[in-house]
C-alpha cells in the first residue's frame, strides 16, 4: 500500500526482473499459438545467425566443442527429468513440500565421482607396484654385476685378506721377497736415470691414487726414493707422458723488433678504408696488408737483425693481428692483367705440386741467367 498524490494505491508483491520474465514466458508457453510463433521466429533467427557466421552448428564445431555441448545437453536433460519427477510425485496431505522419488542427482554424482577416484587410485597403485618391482630387479642385477666385477678385479685390500686367510710360510716369504725386489729395482732405475724424462715416466708409473687411498705415500717415498713434489700433481689417468718445459715468454726486445718490422712500408702497406679495421680486446687498429710471403719476410728479418735468432713459427706467432695477408677483396686498384695471370698460374702449379714455390721472383731467378741485366 502506498500514498501518492493524495490517493491510496494498493499493489501486489513487488517482483524482480527475472520473476517478471519467468511469468511472461509461462503465459507465452501456455498459449499454443503464441508458443509456435515464438519457436518459428527463433528458428528463423538461428538460421540467419548461422548464415552470417555468428553461430555454428554441431557438425561445424571442433571435437572438443562438440563434447562440451553434448555435456551441456546431458546436464539439461538430467535437470528436466528431475523437474518432471518432482512435479509428478504425489503430494502428501500432511506436508506441502514434495520430494523426488528415488535417489537424488547429487548423491548419484557423488557415488560416480567416488567410483572414478577409487578406480584411478587402484590403477596408480598397480603402476607404482610394477615400477617398484622393476626397480628391485634392476638393483639385484647391478648388485650381481658389481659382485662379478669385484671378483674379476679384486682390490689390494681383498688380495691382502685372501693372502692372510691362506697364509703359509713359503707363500709369505716369496711375496715379501717379490715386493722387496720390485721396490729396489724401481729405486735403482730412478736413481740411475740421468734425464728428466725417464724420471717422470718412472714416477708416473708408481705415483698413483691407489697408494694415496691406502695411505702408503710415505712408505713408497722411502722405498722408491721419490721426493714429495712427485706426489703433488698426480695425473687423472695412469698415462705415461713427458711434459716438456716450455719457455715462459718472449723478450720485450724481440717482440718490439718484430712489430716494428711488420709495420714498415716495404713489408706491409696500410689500408685507407674507414671500415678496413681490425678489433681485438676492444682495441681497434687500421688493417695493414703484407707485401710478401711470411717465409720471405722471415728471411728478410733475419738478414736485417743478425744479432737475433728467431724461428719461423715464433716469427709467425709474433705477427701483429692487424697485419694480415691480402685477399682479392682488399685490392681496390687496377692491376696488370698479364702479371696477375702469371701469379695465378704460379699458385696453381704450386697447388698441383709441379713447382715447389709460388713466388714469382724465385721462379724468375731460377729460369733467367742474370736477373740484374735487362
UniProtKB/TrEMBL annotation:
Residues 48-63 have a biased composition (Basic and acidic residues). It comes from the Eukaryota. Residues 88-104 have a biased composition (Low complexity). Residues 48-129 are annotated as: Disordered. This is Uncharacterized protein. It comes from Alosa alosa. The lineage of its organism: Eukaryota, Metazoa, Chordata, Craniata, Vertebrata.
Amino acid at each position: 500500500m502506498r500514498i501518492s498524490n493524495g490517493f491510496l494505491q494498493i499493489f501486489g508483491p513487488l517482483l524482480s526482473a527475472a520473476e517478471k520474465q519467468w511469468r511472461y514466458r509461462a503465459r507465452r508457453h501456455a498459449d499454443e499459438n503464441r508458443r509456435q510463433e515464438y519457436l518459428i521466429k527463433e528458428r528463423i533467427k538461428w538460421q540467419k545467425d548461422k548464415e552470417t557466421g555468428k553461430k555454428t552448428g554441431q557438425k561445424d564445431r571442433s571435437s572438443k566443442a562438440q563434447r562440451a555441448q553434448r555435456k551441456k545437453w546431458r546436464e539439461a536433460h538430467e535437470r528436466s527429468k528431475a523437474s518432471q519427477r518432482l512435479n509428478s510425485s504425489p503430494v502428501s496431505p500432511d506436508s506441502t513440500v514434495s520430494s523426488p522419488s528415488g535417489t537424488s542427482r547429487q548423491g548419484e554424482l557423488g557415488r560416480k565421482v567416488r567410483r572414478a577416484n577409487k578406480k584411478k587410485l587402484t590403477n596408480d597403485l598397480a603402476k607404482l607396484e610394477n615400477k617398484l618391482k622393476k626397480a628391485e630387479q634392476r638393483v639385484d642385477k647391478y648388485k650381481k654385476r658389481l659382485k662379478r666385477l669385484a671378483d674379476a678385479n679384486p682390490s689390494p685390500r681383498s688380495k691382502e685378506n685372501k693372502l692372510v686367510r691362506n697364509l703359509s710360510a713359503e707363500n709369505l716369504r716369496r711375496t715379501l721377497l717379490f715386493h722387496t725386489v720390485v721396490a729396489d729395482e724401481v729405486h735403482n732405475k730412478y736413481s740411475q736415470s740421468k734425464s728428466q724424462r725417464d724420471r717422470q715416466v718412472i714416477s708416473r708409473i708408481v705415483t698413483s691414487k691407489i697408494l694415496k687411498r691406502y695411505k702408503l705415500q710415505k712408505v713408497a717415498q722411502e722405498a722408491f726414493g721419490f721426493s714429495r713434489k712427485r706426489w703433488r700433481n698426480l695425473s687423472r689417468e695412469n698415462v705415461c707422458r713427458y711434459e716438456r718445459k716450455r719457455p715462459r715468454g718472449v723478450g720485450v726486445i724481440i717482440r718490439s723488433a718484430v712489430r716494428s718490422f711488420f709495420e714498415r712500408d716495404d713489408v706491409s702497406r696500410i689500408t685507407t678504408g674507414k671500415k678496413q679495421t681490425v678489433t681485438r680486446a676492444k682495441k681497434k687498429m687500421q688493417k695493414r696488408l703484407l707485401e710478401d710471403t711470411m717465409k720471405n719476410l722471415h728471411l728478410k728479418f733475419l738478414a736485417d737483425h743478425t744479432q737475433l735468432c728467431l724461428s719461423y713459427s715464433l716469427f709467425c706467432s709474433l705477427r701483429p693481428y692487424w697485419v694480415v695477408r691480402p685477399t682479392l677483396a682488399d685490392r681496390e686498384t687496377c692491376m696488370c692483367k698479364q702479371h696477375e695471370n702469371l701469379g695465378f698460374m704460379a699458385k696453381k702449379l704450386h697447388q698441383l705440386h709441379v713447382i715447389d714455390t709460388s713466388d714469382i721472383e724465385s721462379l724468375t731467378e731460377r729460369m733467367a741467367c742474370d736477373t740484374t741485366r735487362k
